[in-house]
Every structure is written in C-alpha cells, then in structure tokens.
Amino acid sequence: MADNTVKKLKRSALAHYLDTGFDTSKEASAADWFLVGKDVEDMSINLNPSITTKKNILDETSVSDEGYEPSADVDTYYADPSDGAFYEKLKAIAMDRLTGDACKTRVLEVLVDRKAAPFDAWIEDVVVKPQSYGGAQGGVRIPYQIAFCGNRQKGTVTLTDKKPTFTVATQTASE
Q1: Backbone angles phi, psi at 87, to 5 degrees
Q2: Which domain holds residue 83?
Q3: What average pLDDT does the chain have?
Q4: What's the structural domain count of the chain?
Q5: Which pLDDT score, from 0 to 100, does residue 173 have?
C-alpha cells in the first residue's frame, strides 16, 4: 500500500476560504470562495478555550470545559479591487458600518495533509468584521477579524483549478 501522507506540513497546507456571497442560507456548493492569504504573513485560528477550574474546601479540584470561542485576525489585508466580491463586501462592511447578518458568511478550512484529494475540510458560519482601515504608506489596509459562530460541519474538498468543492461527510449511525 502506497503512503499517501505528506511529511512535515508547510503553512500553505492549511487553507482558509471565505464565501464572498455573505449568505449562509445558500448551499455551500453555490459558494464563490475567496482564498485568504495574499499579503498575509502570519495567521492562526485562536481557539480561545473556555475552561473554569474550582478548588473546594476539601482541596479537590473540578474542571469545567465550556468549549471554544475561535477567531482569527487577518492583519495584513490590503484593499485590492481585483479581489472582486470579497473586496466589495469588506469595503461595504467597513465604510457603511454594516452589522449583524450583513457581516455573516462561511469559512471553509482545508487541510492538505495527503498527496491526493479528497482532502479533509470543515465549513462553519462566521462573522467578518474590519478592525480599521487606512494604514501607513504602501497601501490601504483593512485588517479584519473572523469570529466563528458554530454550525461546523466536517467534510472533504476536491480542488479544480485551485477552486474548492466541499462535500459534507456522511454520518454513521453511531455519531
């Protein structure tokens, strides 16, 4: 049996796409995905785990795991009209001070950790919020935050001409 795994993963093996339609009611198959990463030198998903530890009068410790509040900061996005629908929406959110559902879309996370597709992927609702706009000499920057909202689904992705196609994983009876 051939080894299909990749050795040490490069950062480019973890890809993040945002749905430029900003309409979570549509099927993921109808999404127009924008690949996050151009001009971005460092980006991590901050899991922000919520754990509470209590010690009682008997010196016993209890731990309550309340889950995660994931987010990501994209600090080096440069305003680029050639980014099409994503640029137009981010500009509208910032300049028109949009809130609520107008800022809600989906993120698609793809982990390319094998030599051939399909690759493991996850899709989740997110809110995209610009943090500022302007910046120093060199270009107009619109750094933004991605706040994960839940409704996470696991699946797989195939890539055709660098465009992802997401398929939801089928669940077994034990899940």
Answers
A1: -60, -45
A2: 12-55+71-168
A3: 93
A4: 1
A5: 54
